Amino acid sequence: MSDDFILDTDDLQRRMDGAMANLKTEFASLRTGRASGSMLEPIMVDAYGTKTPINQVGTVNVPEPRMVTINVWDKGLVGKVEKAIRESGLGINPQLNGTIIMLPIPELNEERRRELTKVAGQYAEHGRVSIRNIRRDGMDQIKKAKSDGMSEDDQKFWESEVQEMTDKMIKVVDASLETKQEEIMQV
User: Fold this and answer.
1) Cβ neighbours for 172, distance < 8 A, ≥ 6 positions apart
2) Which residue segment(s) compose the domain that 58 sits in?
């Protein structure tokens, strides 16, 4: 029975990739002093009785490096979109022009840049923890198979496979963090 044990490494890899995708989304929401449509992704608007992402109530554009515009499709939602942006904590002051909301991106000062690098570090640590939790799940499957009679050689093989996947993903997280911190500190 134990000879038939095959760890679903594809599932573990898919879950680790999901943790990495989540980290990239969190990084995209951090302001770097440059305009980006992705910085609005976490903001939800109370539209039609439900929380809706901004990109589903209007068109998000980046016409110039320090400006994001949102062309709201329903005039009745303009005020709600503006309110959601003000309450989001992005530190951006929306300006209305009919159904178009303009978001001028202010220059970041040195102190705010340092704060954002710390926040990026926290996001990266959450990503590492998620990856380690997935590793633990894989190791638990291996331990269970070991108690069901798996040979020690097989156990060592699968444990090294899981550890190798984990180490590789942690390196990707660290590289992404370094890149994001450099991007934030760039003036």
Assistant:
1) 20
2) 37-104
Last residue of a domain, which of 78, 104, 130? Answer: 104
Of 1-10, 57-66, 82-91, which gets the smallest average pLDDT?
A: 1-10
Same domain for 113 and 180, yes or no, is yes
Q: CA 2 to CA 139: how far, in whole Å? A: 16
Helix (H) or strand (E) holding 169: helix 152-185
pLDDT above 70: residue 31: no
Measured CA to CA in angstroms, residue 163 lies from 97, 116, 123, 139 at distances of 54, 31, 22, 9
Close Cβ partners of 1 (under 8 Å, ≥ 6 residues apart)? 148, 149
